[in-house]
Amino acid sequence: MADNPVYKSFDADRDGTVTTGEAEAGITALHAKYDTDGNGRLSADEFKALFAEVTRGFAERPFAMLDADGNKEISAEEMRFPAQMMGRMQSWQGSSPFWGR
């Protein structure tokens, strides 16, 4: 979260930490920015826009982990890999006396 540009923008004095007061002020500013109709509440569409800004960049690490060949694209095979690993772990758990149930 600390790498998120929105979170970083809350650090008003740029000292590397976000205090409770800075966070509250930042959240108030975000709410005002995305309350486009000015009614004091966020509609579903206004919240979707806010959420998109706040979560921008969060998919980069999982994407990089899935992109095994590093070609900046995820193939169907690369998408299947986590499920295959989960299946292997479940089979190990079921056949090994070291895995508790």
Can you describe this structure in just a few lines?
With 101 residues, the protein is an all-alpha fold. The chain has five helices and no strands.
Topology, element by element:
Elements: H1 5-9, H2 20-34, H3 44-54, H4 60-66, H5 76-95
Keywords:
mainly alpha, 5 helices, 2 domains, 101 residues, single chain, elongated
Instruction: Give the rounded overall mean pLDDT.
Output: 87
Number of domains: 2
* Rg, nearest Å: 21 Å
Shape: elongated
Low-confidence stretches: none
What portion of residues belong to β-strands? under 5%
Main beta sheet strand tally, sense and closure? none
Helix residue percentage:
55-70%
SSE class: mainly alpha
Number of strands: 0
The number of helical runs is 5
Please trace the helix and strand order, writing H or E for each element: HHHHH
| First-last Cα distance | 34 Å
